[in-house]
Amino acid sequence: MNTRTPRPTARLLARLSRALRRHLPAAIAGENTGVHQARVTSRRLREAVPVLSIGLKGSKAGKATRKIRRLTRALGTVRELDVTLSLLDELASAPDVPRTAVEDVRACVVREREARRGIMLKRLARVDADKIGRRLGSVGTALETATAEPWRRALGRRLLQRSKRLLGAMDAAGQMYSPERLHEVRIAAKKLRYGLELASDSGVTLAAAHVRTIKRVQDALGKLHDLQVLQTHIAAAQITGESARPEPRAALEVLAAHVEAQCRHLHAKYLQSSTALREVPAAVRKGVVPQLVQLPRSRRLVKMALPRGTAARGVRGGVRAKGSPAAAGRNGR
């Protein structure tokens, strides 16, 4: 009887696969939480499958990745509108925001959400959850039987590339309030966080702290992006307003000014935390990647080809005396 404990990578894929099957029915039913959780799970799978399947034969990982990508896109627009409606709920209780303006914008958003939900359901109807599950199962089986772990080097290279991209986006954004450039910082931070979450789930203990740092900054940038999306709906309501009376237009202007002030406040919050975010790439290069490329105890260590000038301390041959790193951050978002 085979009583060997499954590899952490195979357990990770199995857990994500189960989560996707659990949340999809609620997403199809139109529940906000179901749409959100299904989309988050699909994004984590899109990060994990291409990396973990590096060098595996017969895993059908490419087909699984394409199906998961279609699922993420199908859920995306509806989720964004759900967030917009939640923001409008918050604004409805603000004492200095005209309720009539909130309701005018809400009516526009609800109409658009219903239209996009119909598109989402058509796309989801073409998604075979059972087939995705089988594809992911084949990747997990291949991971269990593999004799090497080339995905570690692949993930290490990805983390280095994404760290460089984050620094470049932050440099481009600078100190000025630029929605487009701040959005690039947000996307770069999110992608680096996905890679660090995968490293953490695979046993890299140093990654969890950097995930938390990115999440704190990403929360502010995410809320800022959500408000900027809301601004586009306010502008649309101002253009397409059915009434020519000045009162509705004035109320929408008050709402627009209130949202703009919130955006400026969140930008200031980002600037305060940007120093900590800027330190993450260096920590990834010096600590996370060297730990990542080490194989578990009693197995040969793999030396990753790092960029010139990057020292991979502790990974130049030999076996660690105290074993492999313990898994950490398994519940990270």
Polypeptide structure, described:
With 333 residues, the chain is mostly helical. It contains nine helices and no strands. Helix 1 (8-28) runs antiparallel to helix 2 (32-52). The radius of gyration is 23 Å and the shape is flat.
Topology, element by element:
Layout: H1 8-28, H2 32-52, H3 61-92, H4 99-125, H5 129-145, H6 151-173, H7 179-201, H8 207-240, H9 246-292
Helix pairs in contact: 1-2, 1-5, 2-3, 3-4, 3-5, 3-8, 4-8, 4-9, 6-7, 6-9, 7-8, 8-9
Keywords:
9 helices, flat, 333 residues, mainly alpha
Summed up:
The chain is an all-alpha fold and 333 residues long. It has helices at residues 8-28, 32-52, 61-92, 99-125, 129-145, 151-173, 179-201, 207-240, 246-292. The two termini are 36 Å apart.
The overall average pLDDT, rounded, is: 83
> Spans of 5+ residues with little confidence (pLDDT < 50)?
297-333
Radius of gyration: 23 Å
Number of strands: 0
What fraction, in percent, of the residue positions are helical?
over 70%
